[in-house]
Amino acid sequence: MEFVLYEQKGAYAIITINREKALNALNSTVLEELDQTLEAVDLETVRCLVLTGAGTKSFVAGADIGEMSTLTKAEGEAFGKKGNDVFRKLETFPIPVIAAVNGFALGGGCEISMSCDIRLCTDNAVFGQPEVGLGITPGFGGTQRLARLVGAGMAKQMIYTARNIKAAEAYRIGLVNEVYSAEKDADGNEVKSAKEVLMAAAEKMAAGIAKNAPIAVRNCKKAINDGLDVNMDEAIVIEEKLFGDCFETEDQKYGMAFFLDKNKEKVKAPFQNR
Question: What local confidence, expressed as pLDDT, does residue 267 receive?
Fold first, then answer.
């Protein structure tokens, strides 16, 4: 891969968009490599993904404007579909995906972070959908996912004004789950950068998710995602089916036997070792 790095660490893996000189902007090659990377994930051993951008300045600064500037209507629609196909694959990926957002997450960068299950960011992170200032609409799901995450009113304000927001406001409106700052000693000297603290937190969360029953975690993701697209009566049926699917699995048998075992010695349920 030219622009995408993949590293497996035990039961979780890290995907890094590695186009730092271009602030990790998304061009056709990056999108294709992301798609190929997701296809190659070993779902037998990997139970959670962390998605981040190389360097400290930018998570993903957006789609590549140089590539987009000469597109025809048909080519523009095709480029939007290419991005949407990859982001939808990320959103519906069987295992959880954590976005570790450092620096700029603008346009396509904000959109790819919203395709992930959980968003963590550094205190210098900047989010926004600046597309109307470029004469276009968000094209990789921004008009849809932003409204679902922060509400239609706030989404319309961000998109219509093309105004970027900082990490604190992103946290306030519910766009991100947590914000991380640099770690300092008693004298105020930086011990760990905000990016290092962010990645440590993201990896700790990924490792924690990976320790839980994998079938149950996957079914939870599917229940939440599928349920959001239908009314409550239909959503409850989706949950019932996925709840039932957990029974008679090794995960369910081990997990409940472990819970019921008073001395926790006869039966062990180390999901991470299976």
Answer: 55
Query: Which carries the bigger pLDDT value, residue 271 or residue 170?
Result: 170
Strands 190-192 and 178-180: what pairing? unpaired
In sequence order, what are the beta bridge partners of 100?
52, 120
Place of tokens 């000189």: 21
Both structure tokens of 209: 């998710």
**In this structure, how many other beta carbons lie within 10 angstroms of the beta carbon of residue 168?**
11
Q: Measured between alpha carbons, how far is residue 264 from residues 208, 214, 260, 261, 272 in Å?
A: 20, 21, 8, 5, 17
Looking up tokens 């029953």, which residue turns up?
213
Confirm whether 20 is a catalytic residue.
no
pLDDT tens track for 106-138: 999 999 999 999 999 999 999 999 999 999 999
**In sequence order, what are the beta bridge partners of 121?**
101, 179
* The one catalytic residue among 67, 111, 169, 234: 111
Does 111 participate in catalysis according to the annotation? yes
Which residue among 91, 131, 190, 240 is the active-site one? 131
